[in-house]
Design a protein that fits this description.
By secondary structure, the chain is of the alpha/beta class. About 45% of the residues lie in helices and about 15% in strands. It contains 31 helices and 23 strands. Strands 11-12-10-13-14-9-17 form a seven-stranded parallel beta sheet. α18 packs antiparallel against α19. It is globular and about 90 Å long. The termini are far apart.
Length: about 800
């Protein structure tokens, strides 16, 4: 393109060729002066007064628009050319929220400590002299995220503290401190057993304390917005912190993609997703299955390289999909220089050589597997520096607390955190799992794409919440490794170098939303004071305590879960700065309509007896009557799942029940097979708790195969995914399913989930033991060339 007629066309070409506004280039294209261009495009482009760079309206009029308006007003006082900025920004300000639209929970860290002290004065009638003499007070540590109520026992003889809002074992100040730290108050008795002191939960006292805790939470909710001046101050602060963001809408309609295969055309949502990756910060492609995330990432990588925004892209994909990704890459762009890892490349003997090839080669893209990515270490200097920086922050906070004569409790907590950081430094960067190869920094990678990013959801969280379901207190080495590498990429690219892609950004726990924000919006969280999980949880999440069925299925128990979001519009506005969300309803993809059928089966007499024995085992484990190496809850729940699938998995001497899951599934599958003989339709059968052995011992796979053959299905029309143990064999097997040669494919969720695209002839899918996560169900609901209805059968319900 050498010339255009209008400034608008010049802008579109500049965005497509320079990934931004280049006035000199636009002036040359349109044969107009820069002043004429900016005048014609007034209101379409804006000069940012801080950077003095020109930005498009969708970029300038998004993000923290309150802050931008305040800055623009200051500049406009002396520079009238910024008046248009002020007018335009005033038009996109989020509506000011009032108290009725804001949920404030006790423990929210954006609330000033003076308000908590005022709440104590008015609700507990704490004597004023205790505050004046500094005997009582409320402290909050930014470093540890810990609240502390000082002098909890100083207010003696106050019936409001000891009875109305407290108990004989835990006064109101202790319960208030627990509430601020999002903890349930628990009362323990100390008993002596075999000469050793042991703490045992006092259920009656704990229940009483729990009722008082709820009373304090309700009192705080009623009190917080009562006084007009306090209400106004809190609303203003909330609006400034959390209601200032206007998510940017990306438009990729001007993108052209030189070098792309001409017979492939990206859909509008894919063009917008590529624009998000080019012009925005770190991106999460939260698109439903079949939306085309693969092509979105490939196109973004090639455009980044063409526009000079990056030199080398690294794609981290599930291990078994590296070759499929390379094939998709070459299908979309036939010409690029790409390097795809194979299993062989990451064997210890070849790994150093392969990493050296990445570092020294001029590749447009490098594709490696998840586990291979983990084996490329960050330099030990960087790993040490990251931990040391955190330790230095804590040491500084300890000094400040000591200087302010802060509570010994707070200092002890920070010392504890410091000690755990030192321990994590040696544990997380366990050298035994990494090789002495080229380090991650030396690869020369400046753009990172992570497919199926939900595999990295188990990132460690510091939290004070105790025994709350949905908050993982364990971590995966690979997640810590990914987080450290994301921090490095942020330093290198200014927060613009990472793309995560997943169909299930939240698969089975609410904390995954925060985890995604930590990976991709780390600096935003720090700026808003939400660096600690508890601060984020107190502002946007709520724990709920309810009675639910115990895992062994014979009784009930009280369980606290992190189960509900509040202040959701503000949280979503914040999340959408990085997240590009596309659901099936939004895209209206040509996917088949599914008829879902839940088949509920009655347990056999043997199963009933065995469930009762599971309950007895669970009771023994809870009462600590059995050593954990002999029996534990994990073994019991696993045995329970096996028993629900087929009693012969527990004891293969037991009879084959005529009403077993395998038998019912075979009847249903055979009926469909007969009805669809002419079309040669295929069916998938998922089973996670059994594997084909081939040694004569009982397993569900061979049981289903034998029963299908007994009904007349030829053996060559039934296949196990386990037999395709190489990429070549897997490709051959999938081709047979797509062509109708194989009519039944049996496999587990792990082996037959992501990357199994055999949907051409699929008519039905059966789950024998339904997996826990939504992401593991519905592989059949993909875009089809043939419009048809499909059937999903769930044999997972048991009337136990």
């Amino acid at each position: 393109m050498t010339s255009v007629d209008t400034a608008s066309e010049a802008l579109a070409v500049s965005l497509g060729e320079k990934a931004g506004i280049d006035l000199a280039y636009m002036s040359q294209l349109a044969n107009k002066s820069e002043e004429e261009i900016t005048k014609e495009l007034a209101g379409v482009i804006f000069q940012n007064p801080v950077t003095e760079k020109w930005e498009t309206a969708d970029e300038y009029l998004s993000g923290n628009v309150r802050e931008k308006l305040a800055v623009a007003k200051v500049f406009a006082e002396n520079h009238p050319e910024y008046a248009i900025n002020v007018t335009s920004l005033e038009g996109v300000q989020p509506k000011e929220l009032d108290a009725s639209e804001i949920e404030v929970r006790i423990g929210a860290t954006w609330i000033d400590t003076k308000y908590i002290e005022d709440f104590m004065r008015e609700t507990f009638e704490t004597p004023e002299y205790l505050f004046e003499r500094n005997l009582m007070g409320v402290q909050y540590s930014d470093v540890t995220g810990q609240w502390n109520v000082k002098g909890k026992n100083a207010d003696k003889g106050n019936s409001l503290v000891g009875m109305t809002y407290g108990t004989g074992r835990a006064n109101a100040y202790k319960i208030l401190e627990d509430s601020l730290n999002l903890r349930d108050t628990r009362i323990f008795d100390v008993i002596t057993e075999d000469g050793k002191e042991k703490r045992v939960l006092n259920k009656k006292e704990t229940m009483l304390a729990s009722q008082k805790q709820e009373a304090i939470r309700e009192a705080f909710k009623d009190w917080i917005f009562q006084e007009p001046e306090r209400r106004q101050a809190l609303c203003a602060k909330y609006n400034e912190l959390f209601n200032s963001t206007r998510p940017r809408e990306y438009d990729g309609s001007h993108l052209k993609f030189p070098g792309m295969t001409p017979d492939i055309e990206l859909r509008p949502h894919q063009l917008n997703a590529v624009a998000h990756q080019l012009y925005g910060d770190n991106t999460l492609l939260a698109h439903c299955v079949g939306a085309g995330k693969t092509f979105e990432m490939i196109a973004a990588a090639m455009e980044n390289k063409r526009l000079g925004l990056c030199q080398k892209s690294l794609f981290v994909v599930p291990n078994h999909l590296t070759e499929q990704w390379a094939s998709d890459f070459l299908r979309l762009y036939p010409g690029p220089n790409i390097l795809a890892a194979t299993k062989k490349d990451f064997e210890p003997a070849n790994r150093k050589k392969f990493c050296s090839r990445i570092a020294t080669g001029d590749y447009d893209a490098v594709i490696i597997g998840h586990s291979q990515f983990e084996k490329i270490p960050l330099s030990t200097e960087r790993q040490a520096a990251m931990i040391e920086r955190q330790i230095a922050e804590i040491e500084m906070a300890i000094e400040v607390t000591k200087a302010e004569k802060g509570e010994r409790y707070t200092i002890k907590q920070m010392e504890k955190t410091k000690k755990s950081l030192n321990a994590r430094l040696s544990r997380l960067n366990d050298a035994s799992r990494k090789d002495n190869v080229v380090t991650f920094e030396q690869l020369g990678v400046d753009r990172l794409f992570v497919d199926e990013s939900h595999n990295y959801k188990n990132l460690f969280l510091y939290t004070k919440m105790r025994n709350v379901a949905g908050i993982a207190q364990t971590e995966a080495q690979k997640s810590s490794d990914m987080f450290a590498k994301c921090q490095y990429m942020d330093e290198l690219t200014g927060g613009k170098g990472i793309t995560f892609a997943t169909g299930t950004p939240i698969s089975n726990s609410m904390t995954e939303l925060y985890t995604n924000m930590r990976y991709l919006q780390y600096n935003t969280l720090q700026r808003l004071g939400l660096g600690h999980f508890d601060s984020w949880a107190a502002s946007f999440g709520e724990t709920q305590t309810a009675i639910e069925l115990a895992p062994e299925g014979t009784g009930y128990r009280v369980k606290t879960r992190f189960a509900k979001f509040f202040n959701l519009p503000e949280l979503i506005a914040l999340f959408k700065e990085s997240a590009d969300i596309q659901t099936p309803d939004m895209l209206k993809l040509p996917v088949p309509e599914a008829d879902y059928e839940n088949i509920v089966l009655k347990p056999s007499e043997h199963q009933k007896e065995m469930v009762q024995s599971l309950a007895e085992r669970a009771e023994a484990v809870r009462d600590r009557k059995v050593d954990a190496t002999v029996d534990n809850m994990l073994k019991i729940t696993n045995d329970g799942r096996k028993l629900a699938l087929d009693q012969r998995l527990i004891n293969d001497m037991l009879p084959d029940e005529e009403n077993s899951k395998a038998t019912i599934c075979v009847e249903k599958a055979f009926e469909i097979w007969e009805q669809t003989k002419e079309q040669k339709s295929a069916q998938l059968i998922f089973c996670d708790l059994s594997t084909p052995k081939g040694d004569g011992t009982f397993n569900v796979y061979e049981d289903i195969r034998d029963k299908l053959m007994a009904k007349g299905v030829p053996e060559n029309e039934i296949a196990f995914i386990h037999d395709a143990n190489t990429e070549t064999r897997k490709a051959e097997l999938f081709a047979k399913v797509r062509s109708g040669q194989v009519r039944f494919l049996l496999g587990s969720t792990a082996k037959m989930g992501a990357g199994t695209n055999v949907q051409d002839r699929l008519i039905a899918l059966h789950h024998l033991d339904v997996p826990w996560r939504p992401s593991d169900v519905g592989r059949i609901l993909r875009t089809f060339k043939i419009k048809k209805n499909v059937e999903v059968t769930d044999n997972g319900k048991d009337d136990f």
